[in-house]
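Backbone geometry:

***
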Amino acid sequence: GAGAGVEAPPRQSKTRFFIGLDDDEDRSGMITFPHSRSSASAGPAHAADEFPRRGYSADLAHDPQPPAAMGLSPRSRRRTAAIADARRTNSVGAKPQAVINARAEQLLREEVFLALLSVQDQPYHDIGQLSEDMNDAGIRVVFFSSENESRSVSFARRMGLETGWNCMISLGSEDKCTVAANKAKLPRGIANVRPHLQNVDDVPLLVSLFVDCTPRATQEMLLIFQEYHKIVCCMGSSLNSMSSLAFAQADVSLCFDPVRVPLCAGSAGCPRPMGASLAEAAGRAHITPAEKVASYFNSLCCTYHLHREANFRFVLLVQQSRVLTTNMQRAFLYLLWVELALSFMVLVSYMVLLPPIVNGEQLLFVAALQVPMLAASILWAPPDASTMKLMPVPQCHHIPNVARFGVYFLLRMIPSTIVCLIVFALCLHSFCERDHGDCHALLGPRGTHGTQAWNGWAGPNLQGLVTAQNILCWLFVAYQSITVASFFHETLSLRAYSPLKNKIWLAMVPLVLGLQTLFYAVSVRTVGTPAVGAFTLSDAPVAAIALAAAWPVAMVAVHEAVKHNQHKHFVREQKRARINFGTKLGMHSPV
């Protein structure tokens, strides 16, 4: 700091000292460091008048007997005794601030002000931006501090956390509740958090700061978060043994090696590696072997242990994790819907007395190879620009509306299966008329139902049945190749989110259709040829070919209509989730 600009009168000795100010409210006070003896001369009064008004003299009596190594003069000892007397006066009922201010004014009138020294803990330089990014992504940053309220609030404010009304809970004491200056009534003590959540409101799950935390209290609070379906990611120092319980309790844990600056970092003679700058050398403080062992043991429960030299961006990690998790959910949803569609198609074929629409080899090839290959392309869907602006879905609400889920499945999957069944029945009828002339639309050749299995298709006409089955399988795979493109994004249309960005899908579609065509050719050739001649695709009716070719256009229109409706519900749910995330209103709210 700078001096006050007041010089001592000539030929008068003054005791010069520095005033150290801590930025946190609970530690604010003045510390004197005298280094010379002084006479009884009077000093400037305006410097002494300034500090009592600002309240910087609240802790003048913290240490009434400094160490003898400080070199206190008899006059300084008398001042210390006066401060101790002020404390004794305060203990018998006098007003503490008035007494201490009076003593401080008397003492400061005899000193010359030289400088101010402010000390405060500083968070990492980009923690504020990280907190803001996490808040935009719907991820609440919670700070568990072992310090008291004033010191923790001061540090949390520099971290960019919300420290206003209903934003702080103390886990230290077992008192029933604490009433802050703004009349916010919150539980105090970890034992009172669960009763508050059960009987009052959910504000303890929405605050960003917990103070007076012990390792056991922190672990218990993380367990409470998990009981209420919150996913907990814990971050801390790998050299802090008190964090090990929190690391073990959290769903995902990340620990960091602390950055320590050597004492010689600011000097030109500080040893540093060859070619390293002074700033780089400052960040390479020596870690002892014992600290390395402690770091390894503390990080046993952590998913990631990041070293100081690692080029790590937590926001990018969260974004990639969210994209991968979302794509996996969509891929498994697509697999579920396709398997349900296959089951529905087989069930309907039996209900209308059709021959088997697929055999074992065809069903295994489609369900176990083709469909998973198409689903895998969803994993490589390019991320959306708004990925880190979306609110996450709660763990207990993966399917918030079962009725809407069922309607979407019926509209997006069932029509394609019905089209495949109609094409299959038309092909069978056409093949039957070519050989027999008199055929039932569903039951096949007339007059053979009681003597041959599968309505007469199990005997000499088996090659026609296999051909119709392969046509159905090829159409089903082709339709699913188009359907899977609508799963790349949950709500955006194909025009807003083009599937052509997915290079894996562009390579997978021709591969899947080529394999299905090869299976079609091999399957038909392995079956005996009937006497009239083999059935080919040219024997399929024109109506079946026209229906199969026209349906993809209508199918895309149905998918777009369903996603448009889904987009409206999604936007509404996102707005509601954003309001719930940013609002900390409870039973004792002022509104």
